Amino acid sequence: MSAYNKCKLWFRRRIRRNWQTTAIFLIIAFCGFAIYASHQKSKKSLLDDEELKRKLVKRKRDIDKFLLKPHKTLYNLENKDKRYSQVKQDEVVFDILQKEKGFFVDIGAHDGQFLSNTLWLERQHDWTGLLIEANPELCQQIDKLKRHAWRLCACLSSSHKSVTFIKGNTVGGVIDHIDDHHIKMLDQKNRITVPCFSLEEVLNEIGVYHIDFYSLDVEGAEMYILQSLRNGLNNGIFTVDVWSIEYRVWDGQRIVVEKSKENLNVLRKYFHEIGGYFEHSQLSTDKNKQDGYALDVVFVRIKAWCKTRANFPNGTRCPNLNEDSRIKDYLVPPHPIHSVEDPNKRYSQAKQDQIVYEIIQKDGGFFVDIGAFDGQLFSNSLWLERKHKWSGLLIEANPELCARIDQLKRHAWRLCACLSDSLEKVSFLKGEALGGMEREVNEHHVKMLNRTNRVTVPCFSLETVLDEIKTYHIDFFSLDVEGAEMQILESLRKGLLSQRFTVDVWTIEYRVWDGKKIVLESSLANLNALRKYFKEIGGYSEHSQIPYENESGDGKSLDVLFVKNEMFCRKNEHLPNGKPCPR
């Protein structure tokens, strides 16, 4: 080989080695940068989470300053039947709902008595609710009445900013939203700054999410308030059955008809967009109930109206609200029984399945497993199904987990929805083992979830599902829904009391875990709420608590187990507490 060719070959090899070395350095540098970027992102995420926690704690402290709890119910009141509303709004609402012990929201509550749309409902029909008034002087007058209702002295808004409020006698309001005609009747020097909270925040604090009657009278800010409620209504975070909304504009001498009509049409458009409501009536101070002349307009939720009626006020028939057709989109029938490698394998977290089988001693039983996750991990029902030929109903709201359940081909019905007797849909926070309904997930679990990872899911009552399945006796009900246990149980109360369906054994997770330790105080509160519930239902005994990893005792165990006395006494002479079974 010539010297030239040798030199050329050496040069090529040298270049190749340099390129390889350079490539290695580039790869190392890229990986280092990626690791650094990932670390910075994780660090930022942790800082963001801490900042969010601080903000939530601060908001809770802020709301506690302005939210007053209800006074005890006052008995032996004079003029208990006296009505205070301007155009019989309270009477109209009661005629529609025919309900004792309802819950109202009264915004623009004034002094709590003058022209009140809710005081008669509270005193005569044992209602409670939430009174919202931004004027601190009027809040003091409300407090003197000692009403059996929550009182919020603030404005309602989806924005957390404070607002400027002009104080007035009956026509005060938020300066940015009070209409041109009302503002002429006010002294604009009489201004104050008031805080604002969203309705979701307030309802979370109160623990109520269904509103029977919403009275809205805020002197021109009606649409501002309603827009702040749009997300909550659309996502089922709360529900409202009846609305009475003042829309008429008065300039101090006469009705401003064109502006009033404009307000009415905007309200109609809003409720059309929300869906599920119809205009029931207009309420007037005189006989003129034409558009633009009446004082209030009343909207009613179709589902609430048609529960007890066949026709709307105009004579047209109610739609078929029987959920049979809709539920079929979310309810999948059982797969055929098929052989598996290890039917004796248990998946439950703390031997719930084994304990239940030892109590019931039954093959071919029926379970309801709510919070079913992927159908296998920590499942309290899979061993019963495979080993003892049980079937049942798996309920999971997260669509991604439903798809994983379906891959198992379980011999059980699968409902991909939430369980509720009042809600049509809810906002669900997706997570691995800790997902749940946004409004019900407890404050400790919610810190472990990404609040942007949410999905809207439909809801059905258990009665509707059981009607479709044609099964009304449940041998075992497993309940694990990360803080929503009481909400689920309350939706079952009527069915249990009326024996529309029956349940023999319950295992209910009540322990609260913050990611590091048991939150004992919250866990005990949950356990006591469950004990109170089953005492009120009657016919049940607390059988035992199911520990996990040697943590046992009130507030420390994972689950509590309740048994139906009638079932238990068929196989035993004594109840779990040692008392003889009734004979």
Considering the chains and any ligands shown, give keywords for the structure.
583 residues; alpha/beta; Rossmann fold; 3 domains; eight-stranded mixed beta sheet; 25 strands; 37% helix
Secondary structure: elements and pairs:
Blueprint: H1 3-66, E1 67-68, H2 89-97, E2 103-107, H3 119-125, E3 128-132, H4 136-145, E4 150-152, E5 155-156, E6 163-166, E7 173-174, H5 180-183, E8 191-194, E9 196-197, H6 199-206, E10 210-216, H7 222-234, E11 239-246, H8 257-274, E12 277-283, E13 296-301, H9 302-306, H10 324-327, E14 331-332, H11 352-360, E15 366-370, H12 382-388, E16 391-395, H13 399-408, E17 413-415, E18 418-419, E19 425-429, E20 436-437, H14 443-446, E21 454-460, H15 462-469, E22 473-479, H16 485-497, E23 502-509, H17 520-537, E24 540-546, E25 559-564, H18 565-571
Parallel strand pairs: 2-3, 2-10, 3-4, 5-9, 10-11, 15-16, 15-22, 16-17, 18-21, 22-23
Antiparallel strand pairs: 1-4, 6-7, 6-8, 11-13, 12-13, 14-17, 19-20, 19-21, 23-25, 24-25
Helix pairs in contact: 7-8, 16-17
The poorly predicted ranges are none
Secondary-structure-derived class:
alpha/beta
Number of strands: 25
Can you tell me the number of structural domains? Answer: 3
Mean of the pLDDT scores?
Answer: 86
Q: What about the largest sheet?
A: 8 strands, mixed
Distance between the termini: 112 Å
Total DSSP helices: 18
The Cα radius of gyration reads 30 Å
- What share of residues are in beta strands? 15-25%
- CATH topology of the largest domain, what is it called? Rossmann fold
The shape, in one word, is globular
Q: Tell me the name of the CATH class of the largest domain.
A: Alpha Beta
Strand sequence of the main sheet, in spatial order?
A: 1-4-3-2-10-11-13-12
Second-tier CATH architecture of the largest domain = 3-Layer(aba) Sandwich
CATH superfamily of the largest domain: Vaccinia Virus protein VP39
